[in-house]
Write a structure and sequence with these properties.
By secondary structure, the protein is mainly α. The chain is 66% helix and 5% strand. It has 14 helices and 4 strands. The protein has helices at 2-6, 15-23, 31-47, 50-64, 77-112, 118-121, 130-137, 140-172, 179-220, 224-235, 238-259, 296-307, 316-325, 337-356; strands spanning 265-268, 273-278, 288-294, 312-314. The protein has a 4-stranded mixed beta sheet, sandwiched between helices. Strand 1 (265-268) and strand 2 form a beta hairpin.
Length: 373
């Protein structure tokens, strides 16, 4: 077992391993892609809805800080006013929250698809293990997260400073504007700044997505022994498959022997092969094989035929050709129609001669080309 664990994981993950991982909620995810999508979505939502948002805020604050003379002595007014303010604020935030929530789900599903598993959220004792915790802290993944965090910090700082330098004149001009104009202007500048800074995170996401896909594939890699074990579990172990085939053969043989009393003739080799045929001109287009076998099974077929007075006909070439070319439950090969017809015709003439005391028919010798079967 120790040797197996030390083997390099050089084999690509099998479809079964991938499916098992998905059932456990283990799919590729990129937090950078999700965060970038949420930031961009929020920034664009704010940018294109500045006026409706300001109108909603203005109306909510106006109603919250205005009190009619008749309500001054109403002891329930403060509670009712606070409830109305809360409802208005909540109603204004719900659409924005829904949009951000949709961005979270779409960003998470972008590279791994939909996957929900209680196994992923179930508590695990190993997460409380301090030794494994230290290993996670000093792992390659933690180093990658540290590098990403530093890259994000410097990237956002550079983009933010560049954007601030670009917008400095516009920011200074806000002090000369009226309040009614300055407030929407500030909202637009803030939304645009957020959009510009968020756009810089696209570079981090573009670098993180390939890394997460590669890391996920690497994590799912298998050793050769794991691939062999999975194949055995999926396809069945050889000894189990052999036993199943033996049981199936026994069942098929038992069913075949049960149909033997209905046979019209058994064509034999005479010792190595035996093929039982049934022909009903009203229900069959051609004679049908209801049993066949060789060696011990052929011997058993002959014994059952003798017990139920089924005639035996020795024709070695025909018996071999029927055994090789025909399947149980199916009609015989068209190339054997003439030879089998001779045998059936002979048996009919023989039965008629036995009943009427007529002259016995001449024994046929069916001729076939065995190389065709």
């Amino acid at each position: 077992m120790a040797d197996e664990q030390q083997q390099d994981r050089t084999e690509q993950a099998t479809p079964k391993r991938r499916e098992d991982a998905r059932k456990k909620g283990d799919v590729p995810r990129s937090r950078e892609l999700t965060m970038t999508g949420v930031m961009l979505t929020g920034a664009m939502t704010l940018l294109f809805n500045v006026d409706p948002i300001l109108q909603k805020v203005r109306g909510t604050l106006s109603s919250a800080f205005r009190i009619e003379r008749a309500d001054i002595f109403n002891p329930r007014y403060m509670g009712e006013s606070f409830a109305a303010f809360t409802n208005n604020a909540f109603a204004g935030l719900v659409p924005f929250a829904i949009i951000l929530l949709a961005a979270v789900f779409l960003g998470a599903m972008a590279i791994g698809g939909w996957s929900f598993s209680m196994t992923a959220v179930a508590p695990k004792g190993e997460r409380l293990n301090p030794v494994k915790g230290l290993k996670r802290v000093f792992s390659a993944n933690s180093l990658n997260e540290l590098v990403k965090a530093m890259a994000k910090f410097f990237l956002v700082a550079i983009i933010g400073l560049a954007w601030l330098w670009w917008s400095v004149e516009e920011l200074l001009s806000l002090g000369r504007e009226d309040v009614d104009i300055a407030v929407p202007h500030v909202m637009k500048i803030a939304s645009m700044s957020l959009l510009v800074v968020s756009s810089g995170l696209v570079l981090i996401a573009l670098a993180d997505v390939p890394f997460q896909l590669w890391n996920f594939q690497k994590k799912l890699r298998m050793t050769r022994q794991q691939v062999r074990d999975e194949f055995k579990e999926t396809e069945g172990r050889p000894e189990v498959k052999s036993k199943i085939r033996a049981l199936q053969q026994q069942i098929a043989t038992r069913r075949m022997m049960e149909d033997m009393p209905n046979a019209d003739v058994v064509i034999t080799n005479p010792t190595h092969f035996a093929v039982a045929l049934k022909y009903d001109e009203n229900a069959m287009g051609a004679p049908t094989v209801i049993a066949k076998g060789k060696d011990l099974i052929a011997k058993r077929i002959r014994e059952i035929a003798a017990e139920h007075d089924v005639p035996l006909f020795s024709a070695p070439p025909l018996a071999r050709a029927l055994f090789r070319s025909s399947k149980i439950g199916q009609e015989i090969s068209p190339g054997l129609y003439a030879a089998v017809a001779q045998v059936l015709a002979y048996l009919m003439q023989l039965n008629a001669a036995l009943k009427n005391g007529a002259r016995w028919p001449e024994l046929p010798t069916p001729k076939i080309d065995e190389s065709q079967f």
